[in-house]
Backbone:
């Protein structure tokens, strides 16, 4: 069932033409998991073919000097425009987890005598695990203060943890489960007032909303490229270090790509100037090359227009939830206030795992499940339509009306 409302919203959508930029081989598949793995831009496939044939196939090792060596910075400078950073402040390298490790370790080294790391339980678990591992390898002299959320949706009192012992505040800017968005400028200012550094994980924000690390005066940030940037499975991540900090810091992984003159192959490490010192080893060039297509599309569309559509679409989804799903016992596990919400909406149900499986297996809708009871619906304004959102809600309702989920196992699959 498609209503005139949804059709009219699509007809008025200035970003609608961007959908044709993506590989969509099954138009009836409603893909609402772009916050986990974005769709493939058609231009990414061309870039990959060209890199394989014209560069790897033909130029071989010469392509490093001609093209590849510049990619981590070139792409970093483009991503800088998405997060409000300057050229030379962003680098594409490694995974988000590894970049997070590098920046936490360097931040802690630069705050000797301070022992507290402040974070919260809305944060992405990989970040929390890395903090725990680092505390161990640094000899156990640091402590993690993990501020509890009162409701799993909104943050607890983070500011009260920021005192003269705090070395670092680190948070996911948009919470992966509820979609809650922290106030970057306010929390950064609070951490700075206490003398602590701030590291933002932008994985669930970048490409979904305008960001301004410069206006917030953020010290460090990391983020994914395979979610809203549509960079491809396992595409390398990015890291940001504010320019006036770079020369004071050393990466904890002193690999040759972060050396001043990698190809001199000197026996002692000296940091490369600027952001390059945060490279470790040889970058995964084929995966890196594919990232540019999605970033270019976002820059062409404009982050203000993307955010406006995202807010309209998540708001539309919430209004449909209220009419069709709330009466069936489905809860809203994301903020209702659009200014506090990222680009996904989590809906809760005691049978969420089985409903998620029914949607994927029989309804041709792909959201994802996050423990214990959340089904996340990710809106990617470059390719998600209003009709798809409405149709997904109606198929969700059908699953509950007809009890389709009841035949699925309560066993958890390996990947959700
Ligand atoms: C997806 C995500 C990551 C993923 O990190 P990888 O190292 O790429 O697996 C990290 N942090 C946040 C907040 C995420 O949403």
Residues:
């Amino acid at each position: 069932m498609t209503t005139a409302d949804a059709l009219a919203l699509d007809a008025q959508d200035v970003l609608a033409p961007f959908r044709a930029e993506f590989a969509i081989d099954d138009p009836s598949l409603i893909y609402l998991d772009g916050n986990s793995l974005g769709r493939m831009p058609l231009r990414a496939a061309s870039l990959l073919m060209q890199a394989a044939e014209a560069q790897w196939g033909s130029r071989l090792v010469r392509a490093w000097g001609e093209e590849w060596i510049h990619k981590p910075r070139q792409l970093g400078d483009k991503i800088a425009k998405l997060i409000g950073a300057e050229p030379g402040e962003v680098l594409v390298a490694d995974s988000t987890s590894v970049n997070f490790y590098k920046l936490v370790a360097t931040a802690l080294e630069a705050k000797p005598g301070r022992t507290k790391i402040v974070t919260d339980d809305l944060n992405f678990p990989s970040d929390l695990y890395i903090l725990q591992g680092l505390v161990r390898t640094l000899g156990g002299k640091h402590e993690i203060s993990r501020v509890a959320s009162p409701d799993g949706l909104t943050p607890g009192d983070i500011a009260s943890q920021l005192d003269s012992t705090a070395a670092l505040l680190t948070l996911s800017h948009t919470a992966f489960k509820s979609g809650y968005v922290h106030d970057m400028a306010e929390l950064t200012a609070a951490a700075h007032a206490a003398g602590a550094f701030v590291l933002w994980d932008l994985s669930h924000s970048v490409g979904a909303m305008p960001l301004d690390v410069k206006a917030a005066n953020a010290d460090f940030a990391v983020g994914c490229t395979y979610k809203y940037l549509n960079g491809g499975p396992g595409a390398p991540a990015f890291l940001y270090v504010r320019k006036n900090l770079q020369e004071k810091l050393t990466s904890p992984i002193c690999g040759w790509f972060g050396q001043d003159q990698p190809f001199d192959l000197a026996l002692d490490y000296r940091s490369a100037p600027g952001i390059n010192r945060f490279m470790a080893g040889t970058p995964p060039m084929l995966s890196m090359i594919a990232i540019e297509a999605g970033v270019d599309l976002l820059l062409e569309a404009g982050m203000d227009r993307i955010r406006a559509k995202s807010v309209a679409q998540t708001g539309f989804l919430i209004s449909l939830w209220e009419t069709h799903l709330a009466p069936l016992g489905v809860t809203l596990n994301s903020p209702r206030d659009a200014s506090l919400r990222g680009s996904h909406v989590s809906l809760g149900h005691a049978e969420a795992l089985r409903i998620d499986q029914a949607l994927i297996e029989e309804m041709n809708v792909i959201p994802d499940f996050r423990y214990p009871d959340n089904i996340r619906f990710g809106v990617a304004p470059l390719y998600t339509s209003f009709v798809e959102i409405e149709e997904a809600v109606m198929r969700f309702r059908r699953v509950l009306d007809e009890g389709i989920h009841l035949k699925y196992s309560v066993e958890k699959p390996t990947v959700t």
Notes: The radius of gyration is 22 Å.
